[in-house]
Amino acid sequence: MRLPLVVPSTRGGRRAAWWVRATLGALGVAALGYALFGFLANVPPTQLIGVAAWLAVALLVHDGILVPLTTLAGGGLSRFTFGLRPVQQGIVRGALLVGAVVTLVAAPLIRAQQVLQPRGPGSGVNNTVLQGDYALALGVFWIVLAVAAAVVVTAVGLYGRRSKVRKILS
Fold first, then answer.
1. Which pLDDT score is estimated for 58?
2. Is 165 exposed, middle or buried (0-12, 13-18, 19+ CB in 10 A)?
């Protein structure tokens, strides 16, 4: 299925759009080639094996764990947001997606902070590494995200009702 995002009015416009797309594609391929060459030139062969293993495990984790979990979560979320309109459901899904990404970014920092900065006398804490309370910040982020999503979902619902009332009265 082809979706026309830009519909040129003339044949010359189509040709220009083709050249723009071809140029951008060639630049993308050139950038990928440059990055691959730089990677292969600067990484020792022993580390290439480690990188390949990491990529294989990342693929397995993504396809074997993350995709099934998000599919199940999406099904559960559809049941949870049953009474909401599609726009409101999208807001809830978007908020949860943003929260999940931020949690994935913050989780290694929280774990590293626990490992590298033990508590207690004689722990030799290095206060210059991993400053801040990442767990508290993540908790505050989730609270703010939940409140913001609830406010926006409510506002969209009220706006939808208000516009329906105006349509009925008109």
1. 94
2. exposed
Q: Is the pLDDT of residue 77 over 80?
A: yes
- Within 13 Å and on the Cβ side, how many CA atoms surround 67? 7
Compute the average pLDDT of residues 15-39. Answer: 94
b/e string for 40-57 if b means 16 or more Cβ within 10 A?
A: eeeeeeeeeeeeeeeeee
% of the chain beyond a pLDDT of 70: 79
The pLDDT score that the predictor gives to residue 3 is 53
- Residue 23 in tokens: 């140029």
Q: Which residues contact 145 (CB under 8 A, 6 or more apart)?
A: 95, 98, 99
pTM over 0.85? The answer is no
Nearest to 148 by CA among 105, 110, 75, 95: 95
CB 8 within 8 A of CB 17: yes
CA-nearest of 137, 154, 158 to 92 is 154
Q: Phi then psi for 40, rounded to 5 degrees?
A: -70, -30
